[in-house]
Task: structure prediction
Amino acid sequence: MAKEKQVVVVDPELWMNRHLHYQERQSGWKIFTSIYWSIYLLFVGALLIFYNSLGLSLTYFFGVSIFLLSLMLIIYGFTTSLHFKLMKRYG
Result:
């Protein structure tokens, strides 16, 4: 007896709706992780800015750079979350 072939039809619209729903559910986690890592980077940046025992301006530069990176990380997390929520609603 020959095995019957099983045909799987993938509906692109259903797949896209599931994908957007999953992304929208994960948007809160995206905000949490971006804030978590930005707090860590803010702390490291503040240490480099204010702990200037060597008197080098290089540590200050890296401190400010890491500080700005953490702010951009917060903005990235919120914009990604907003994008996921808007795509779920209007996509």
Notes: DSSP finds two helices and no strands in the chain.
